[in-house]
Amino acid sequence: MERGAEKEKKLIMELLHKELEEEIARIPKANPYPYTTDYLVVHNFVDQPFLSSFAS
Asked: According to the lineage, what is the superkingdom (predicted)?
């Protein structure tokens, strides 16, 4: 009787594991990389007259 319960438990665990793997495979992973290879341009706004008028 003990062996049958152990086999049943093992079967249930395998089915749950397979179900979880299938669920994970269905969810698409987000791409961590940008769509372009261009570098981010950081502007120096201190030298611009429009924004420097707010600084005073």
From this structure: Eukaryota
